[in-house]
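Our example pasted here:


***
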Amino acid sequence: MAVRVALVGLGDIGLTAHLPALVRAAGVRVAALVDPDPLRRKLAGDLAPAYPDIDEVLADDDIDAVVLATPPWVTTGAIVRVATAGKFVLAEKPVATSVAAAAPLLELSPNISDHVQVGLTYRHDPAMVQLREWIADGVLGERLVVRAHIYDERLDPADPAHAERLRNTLRHGLPVLHEGSHFFDWLAYLLGGEPMRIDDAWSMRTDRRAEVPNLTGARLTYPTGHIAVVECGWLTAGLPPCEVSLLGDRGYAVLDCHTFALRLSTEDGDRVVEFPGERTQRCFDRQVERFVALVNGSRPSPSLADGLAALRTSEQVARACAEGEA
């Protein structure tokens, strides 16, 4: 039988990525849509009954699972409510605005937290699997310098509503706290776990009138001596290339963060590795497949523990950035 799924949160990521992936997925039926904004509910169309809050979903025993495409200051409590109601959860990252705010998630029993998958969506991409294999096989070398430059939210004067949404998000934390859940999860997945230490960090306000910094960066040391240099930023009129590069004595690999195409240079020559389909659709479709597998008895991947680990690193870096600015 099809897994009956409710989508909670009909903002940009809900309407443009989660909902299409659910509609495309074999074995999934969209059973309900939830958003407090009536315009957003109207934009979602008539695929399923639409509600202004989650109460109807929690009361419906026929709904098996819930996708939470909600902001992090809402997600934490929603995870607790949905999971304790006996439903499976796919929750957008980050799962909270801070480790302290995530405390209710740590109180969930293992049998409940094992029903929670975290939307670290791009870990599912085959490019990540390929990079991990190259690292494990020593294709690049034993110790690597990884550079992660994550810039993907341009300041567009023609779209003031987008800029205001980003500024509102920044009021809840630095860019690294919001973007970091993705790329710190990538680094943990690729480099063998959480960082051993944060060596230094910085933050900067490109607009001195801004309430909080919009650019952040850090240098971290990972297991086996890998070094990662990370930068992320929002709200500049132009953006640097968004990419992750890995350099060792045997090779150099670059991941294009827009397409997830890979470039590899070794003594054997240069090559490009590309994967079928568009990156976002490919990753969200694979994420839904994993979520259906969870409902049908598999382990969550990425798990709530993975999401909390990425949040923990993001918060530690954000704190170090704030101390550096002070």
